[in-house]
Amino acid sequence: MLDFLLTSDAIIALLTLTFLEIILGIDNIVFISIAANKLPEEQRSKATNIGLVLAMAQRIILLFFVSFLIGLSEPFYIHESSWLSISISWQAIILFAGGLFLIYKSTKEIREKVETPAHDEKAVKSKVIKSLNQAITQILIIDFIFSVDSILTAVGMTNGLHPNHNYTLVLMIIAVMISIAVMIGFANPIRKFIDRNPSMQVLGLAFLILIGFMLITEAAHLSHTEFFGNSVGAIPKGYLYFAIAFSLFVEFLNFKTVKKKT
């Protein structure tokens, strides 16, 4: 396993996935801060840290569950006709549904951030919190909602890296642990940076659309889908890593240019 974790593909996947987990966790940090700020001053840091640690445990449990479903690769339904040939498995269904979800959720989030950026924050602020337990419960509920796209992103970034699903599961768990640790240590600075540069979060959501499309093509490829005799191929993950790295480089140049002008 160590040999796999030290390969260039695994390291690039880990760095990219950790970055995306942090970017996707920004909203989570904002909502956790709102929930914690309703408590007395001496309980706010405790609620935030406990909430994030429990959120990490929650995501790892979800990773085990999703990875189990991904491992069900044997087809249970085969259809062949003159124009379509497909072998459907639970693995393909999870990837296909996950891809559609990521595309829908990301498009919806981008639209809401452009039109009503404070909508979700107002919804969280309207809920009454009277105790530490209530705050932690609300934090866990909030994190569960955000965990879905986070887990699907992890699956999309690591699926197919190694034939042994346990190896990729370990890689996903490491990325989640690193991202949560970073969020615990730098929650406020990260949140302030994103507030100053909201394009970074929009960029992260745009990456999710790419990952969602990749999951759909991956599902079609694993189902041995053929349209009119033409098979659907998988998108090499190297293309995705390059697109993400290039976009971040352009955003970095834009950030430096704007900073110099101001």
TrEMBL record:
One Gene Ontology CC term in the entry: membrane
Transmembrane segments: 12-35, 47-70, 82-104, 135-155, 167-190, 202-223, 238-255
InterPro entries in the cross-refs: Integral_membrane_TerC, MFS_trans_sf
Cellular localization per UniProt: Membrane
Superkingdom, natural source: Bacteria
Keywords annotated in UniProt: Membrane, Transmembrane, Transmembrane helix
Keyword Membrane: yes
Topology within the bilayer: Multi-pass membrane protein
SUPFAM superfamilies named among the record's database cross-references: MFS general substrate transporter
Pfam family, one: TerC
Family: Belongs to the TerC family.
Protein name: TerC family protein
